[in-house]
Write a structure and sequence with these properties.
It is globular, with a radius of gyration of 20 Å. Helix 5 packs parallel to helix 8. It has helices at residues 2-8, 26-30, 57-64, 85-97, 101-124, 150-155, 159-170, 191-209, and strands at residues 13-15, 37-40, 52-55, 130-134, 137-141, 182-184. The mean pLDDT is 91. It has 211 residues and is an alpha+beta fold.
């Protein structure tokens, strides 16, 4: 992709909003990618209203060469929340204490354990589902293979089944991400919590099999 964009003079822009879970430096660093522009969302501030973008020197020079461009307020990272002290403090605290090499190593190991627990249950009950993992994040979907595009993902969505899985877990003390079946590990996540989810997930599938 990088070679193709360079051949055609196209900018390669990567959004790390959902891929910062890959590790320090996100998916970009993990796979040695070389984007022209990069964006990062609120994970950078631990959930606070925060964000950042970066650009190569060449792109930055082209951007700032335009005297009519507004990169301070609404034209860039700006507006009402631009550079406020709370967001900046949250980003500093998150980068120094949460998104560290040590924490990522532990969180990724826990996500792997979570994914393996889910995969074992899926295999045991011979369901056409799969589980994927991206660093400290893991998720299962009601389809045999990972979706290649948004259309495939939408076609595999089962609202009633998803509600069942969420309510089964919630009634046993587990709150999953409400809009899909994803778990994102944090420094506070424990092995016990991960194993408990695996047990409850298996129970949910057993009840489905006997329905």
């Amino acid at each position: 992709l990088r070679a193709l964009t360079r051949q055609t003079g196209t900018l390669l822009i990567l959004d790390e909003t959902h891929t910062l879970s890959a590790g320090v430096g996100g998916y970009t660093r993990a796979h040695n990618l070389q984007p022209d522009l990069l964006t990062v969302g609120k994970a950078l501030g631990g959930g606070m209203a925060a964000g950042a973008f970066g650009a190569t020197k060449e792109v930055a020079e082209r951007m700032f060469a335009r005297k009519d461009a507004d990169y301070v307020d609404v034209g860039g990272i700006g507006g009402t929340l631009a550079g406020n002290a709370l967001s900046l403090a949250a980003m500093r605290a998150t980068l120094q204490n949460v998104l560290t090499e040590k924490n990522y190593a532990r969180m990724i190991a826990l996500a792997t354990r979570w994914a393996h627990g889910v995969a074992r249950a899926i295999q045991e009950y011979e369901l056409p589902w799969h589980v994927t993992q991206l660093g400290a994040r893991a998720e299962y979907r009601f389809m045999p293979q990972p979706a290649r595009n948004g259309g495939e993902a939408a076609a595999a969505h089962d609202e009633e089944l998803e509600q069942y899985m969420h309510l089964f877990a919630l009634n046993r003390g587990i709150l999953l991400t409400p809009f899909h079946n994803m778990a994102l590990m944090s420094p506070a996540t424990t092995t016990r919590a991960v194993d408990y989810h695996s047990a409850i997930f298996s129970q949910a599938l057993a009840q489905l099999a006997n329905a």
